[in-house]
UniProtKB/TrEMBL annotation:
Pfam families: ADH_N (PF08240), ADH_zinc_N (PF00107). InterPro entries: ADH-like_C, ADH-like_N, ADH_Zn_CS, ER, GroES-like_sf, NAD(P)-bd_dom_sf. Its EC number is 1.1.1.-. It comes from Pontibacter silvestris. Belongs to the zinc-containing alcohol dehydrogenase family. The keyword Transferase does not apply. Residues 8-292 form the Enoyl reductase (ER) domain. One of its GO terms (molecular function) is oxidoreductase activity. It comes from the Bacteria. This is Zinc-dependent alcohol dehydrogenase.
Length: 389
């Protein structure tokens, strides 16, 4: 089959690779109908996630049709139209049982690599390096889906692919970001980053009771989408002093809840990348957590900082004094796909949110390398490029 493979920093190629097959009783094979780019893939392109290997298939936000199931799969059958969460969970461990799926004890086949790199071990993620289990990604014609009964969800009739695909990753991540804030009626929520994850965090903040949402980015087309579709007030951080503006907009008090939907973006953090071709491994350097610092400094006393933007290694000069003296609450994590996807599919089916406006380009898999170049530079008003293998 055809697949989009990672071959080094900023190097992607469409290659012929073997078709996947069932390896464990709980596996399903899904024919991918849509697979989206995600900001997390940029960390792979930038070389910030350790342990990518040349030839690894990337991609993790996807949907498709079940074409084969293992003997242990109970809830799915051939022909089902499903969305698959990007983070894998076994369903049986202590963490899956308590709905903290991205902390799963069993779905990462190489937990020792993650442990060595980050000092902890978490769940496997499709197409997201060997530290996260070395699972083949979704930018391919077919994909093996382990723990298929837990991670795949039938798409309700009437929900179109263009909306459903984002319930795989961007929407549950944005929703979790807002959920972690502990929003109370009347709250002002600020979201740094108006990408797919940020847009969904803004919409989710309203669903969870926010009165006011403020979006921060530097791309006017993304801010415009935030304004029109997510009903956010917007700030362009290249045109205003963010801390001053937020102070003024909240009467000097500061926003109640602050969401980091950016993470270690190269433009912002200047994380230095070192890729060792011989070892096929990436060494992380430290970066400046510009967004996180702003969020901590801006947040009102006793407020919440919620982080879904991805961080890999160490970050410099984290303003611990401000955080401590303002009694801030921090919540963060890779998202709990299996916890949120069912209710988000229901919300989309009910018309509460239509994430399809984020899909700006629907391209073939052959255009993968070009699609990522555009997505990385955010040219052509690109928000989400979706490949249709
Ligand atoms: P994206 O690249 O489409 O959007 C990121 C946006 O952040 C861009 O529009 C960029 O201009 C903006 N930005 C950069 N620096 C900024 C700054 N200083 N202030 C305000 N905005 C700034 O990416 P995305 O798909 O929306 O993903 C966003 C983040 O969420 C990434 O770090 C990604 O890895 C992470 N993510 C996390 C999870 C999870 O499970 N926690 C899941 C998916 C994505
Ligand atoms: Zn588990």
């Amino acid at each position: 089959m055809k697949a989009l493979c990672w071959n080094g920093i900023n190097e992607l190629n469409v290659e012929r690779v073997p078709d996947p097959s069932i390896l464990n009783p709980g596996d399903a094979i899904v024919r991918v109908t849509m697979s989206s780019v995600c900001g997390s893939d940029l960390h792979l392109l930038d070389g910030y996630v350790p342990t990518m290997k040349e030839g690894d298939i990337i991609g993790h936000e996807f949907m498709g049709e079940v074409v084969e199931i293992g003997p242990g799969v109970k809830k799915l059958k051939k022909g089902d139209r499903v969305v698959v969460g990007s983070v894998l969970g076994c369903g049986g461990c202590e963490f899956c049982q308590t709905d903290q799926w991205s902390l799963c004890d069993n779905s990462n086949t190489n937990p020792e690599i993650l442990e060595k790199a980050y000092g902890h071990a978490g769940a496997g993620i499709f197409g997201y390096s060997h530290a996260f289990g070395g699972y083949a990604g979704s930018h391919a014609e077919y994909i093996r889906v382990p723990y298929a009964d837990h991670g795949s969800f039938k798409v309700p009739e009437g929900v179109k692919d263009e909306a459903a695909v984002f319930t795989s990753d961007a929407f549950p991540t944005g929703f979790m970001a807002a959920d972690m804030c502990g929003i109370e009626r009347g709250d002002t929520v600020v979201v740094w980053g108006a990408g797919g994850v940020g847009q969904m965090a803004m919409q989710s903040a309203y669903l969870l009771g926010a009165e006011r949402v403020i979006a921060i980015d530097r791309f006017d087309d993304r801010l415009e989408k935030a304004r029109v579709h997510a009903k956010a007030e917007v700030l362009n951080y290249e045109k205003v002093d963010v801390l001053e503006a937020l102070k003024e907009m909240t009467g000097g008090r500061g926003p109640d809840r602050c969401i980091d939907a950016v993470g270690m973006e190269a433009h912002t953090t200047g994380v230095e990348q070192v890729y060792d071709r011989a070892k096929q491994a990436v060494r992380m350097q430290t970066g400046r957590p510009a967004v996180l610092r702003q969020a901590i400094m801006a947040c009102r006393k006793g407020g919440t900082v919620s982080i879904v933007g991805v961080y890999g290694g160490l970050i410099d000069k984290f303003p611990m004094g401000a955080a401590m003296n303002k009694a801030l609450t921090f919540k963060m994590g890779q998202m709990y796909a299996q916890k949120y996807i069912p209710q988000l599919l229901d919300r989309v089916a009910a018309g509460e949110v239509d994430p399809s406006y984020m899909l700006t380009h629907k391209w073939s898999l052959d255009q993968g390398p070009e699609g990522y170049k555009m997505f990385k530079k955010k040219t052509d008003n690109c928000m989400r490029v979706v490949f249709t293998p």
